[in-house]
Amino acid sequence: MPLRDLLLLIGGPQGSGMETSGQILTSALARRGYGVLSDREYYSNIVGRHSYVHMRISSHTIPRSLTYPVHLAGFVDAESVFTHTFDIASGGWLIYDAGTDPTKITRIPSMEPQVRDRLLGKYREHGIGETVKDVIEYLEKEKGVNIVPLSFKLILNMLRQKYNMTLGQAQRFRSTIIFAAMAALLGLDADSVSYGIERRFRGREKVIEMNKFLASKLIEEIRSDYGTPLALEPSSIDIDKLLIATGNDVVGMGKIVGGLRFQSYYPITPAADESTFLESHESLVVDGEKKGNILVFQTEDEIAAIASAIGAGLTGARSATATSGPGFSLMVEALGWAGMNESPVVITYYQRGGPSTGQPTRGSQSDLLFTMFASHGEFPRIVLASGDPEEAFYDAINAMNYAERYQVPVIHLLDKFLANSTFTVPIPDWGRIRIDRGKTIFKAEGDFKRFDKSEPISPRPVIGSGAITWYTGDEHDEYGHITEDPINRVEMYEKRMKKLEIADKEIPEEERAKLYGSGKDFLLLGWGFVKGAALDALAVLEEKGLKGAYLHLRMFIPYPSRMVREILDSYGAERVIAVEHNIMAQASLATTMNTGFKIGRYILKYTGRPIYVMELVDAVQRIVEGGEDKVVLTYGE
Amino acid sequence: MASNVARYKTDVWSDWCPGCGDFGIVAAMQKAFAELDLDPAQTVVVSGIGCSSKTPHFIHANGVHTLHGRAIPFATGIKLANPRLTVVVNGGDGDLLGIGAGHFVAVGRRNVDITVILHNNQVYGLTKGQASPTLRRWEQVKSLPRPNIQDAVNPIALAIASGYTFVARGYALWVDHLKELIKAAIRHKGTALIDVLQPCVTYNNLYTADFYKGRLYKLEEEPGWDPIVHEPSIDEIDEKVARAWEKALEWGQRIPVGVFYVNPHVETYEERIAKLNPLYQEKPIALQEIEENGTPAISREDFIKLFNKYIVEVDRR
Question: Residue B286: which of A239, A286, A317 has the nearest Cβ?
Answer without folding.
Answer: A317
